[in-house]
Amino acid sequence: MKPTKKRSVPLFWRLIALITGFWFLLVTASTTVTLRYSLMALQEQIDDILMSTVATLANAPGVQRVVAQGYCDEEMTEYLTDVVRNTRDLQYITIADADSVRLYHIDPDFIGLPFEGGDEQRALAGEIYLSDATPDNFQRQHRAFHPIFDEGGQVMGFVMASATHDRIREIQGKIIASYIG
Q1: 0.85 cut: is pTM over it?
Q2: What is the pLDDT of residues 37-58, one digit of tens each?
Q3: Which one of 9, 14, 103, 146 has the largest count of C-beta atoms within 10 Å of its C-beta?
């Protein structure tokens, strides 16, 4: 019986396989890094939208008037509802007094009820911040808070703007799909 000769793969094909493997690793690594930075940029963009919204509203004379008078008139209700509907990636705005009673909410059924989530106390202490919370029987939200100050510098309420985690994941999914597709 003759010994079988091992077939050797020509150098050309070995180089092609090596280059293809290296190219695949390079594309995979660069796509992974780019995707990670895109998702981080999305989170920063959402944070910026939420924080700029609460800062603008907390310093608006109309919002300060709402808290001072203890109710949201029709004109301010329409204005705030338009802000929610026309601001991308923003789903909720709440204006509440110093007792955490809602004076404005996109859903009128929540007006007059206590604020939910338990993450508002820092705003009532004068702090501006981002938070994540799950209000009772509701979706988890990414939230921005800003205190509302009276003319004497005392906190008289707060503004909260949020996007649900479901909405954020939906946007992230679209970004991921754009990299895959």
Answers
A1: no
A2: 988 988 899 999 999 999 999 9
A3: 146
